[in-house]
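Researcher: Go.
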Amino acid sequence: MPARTKYSPMKNNLTSWLLGVILIITASPLFLVLARTVYVQNPSTRLLSAPAMQAGGPKLPVGSSLGVKGQQGLFLKVQSTSNSGWVPGLYVSASPPGQRVNFGTAIDRSTAAKARARAGTFSQTAAARGYASTQTMRPRGNRADFDFTSIEWMEAIQFSDEERTEFERINAGH
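Model: Structure:
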């Protein structure tokens, strides 16, 4: 059995301390100051005249590149191509925003909506009758627990309006 290498407690503590400091720096807005360049992520980001949300300023388009000059609280002092000002550190990132990805051709929305509506109506009717296409879709009981022949026989019985009215009148007190 090979001998275990012993590390000094001081070296372990120093390593842990350094990793902790790196984690704290990268998780804080201070990391954005060190980044030197940040990109607008939020579409409502404004180039503020002061480090306060109520301070006015022009809107910045998403993806705008800003040079970081300093920090005050959660706000970053930045320089855009034409102006300088403040932006909330939570609205920017050291990475540019991702591009929108299209995974196929456009679908006619009216056709898709109609298909969903038909599927919804079919599913609701099947669920009300206790039907399911697979065993896993059945929330209540097994297929053997239901007498589908009798259910179909009962659903096939037709009543006239007069018969229904007479039935309701007779059973109104019960």
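Model: The two ends are 86 Å apart (CA to CA).
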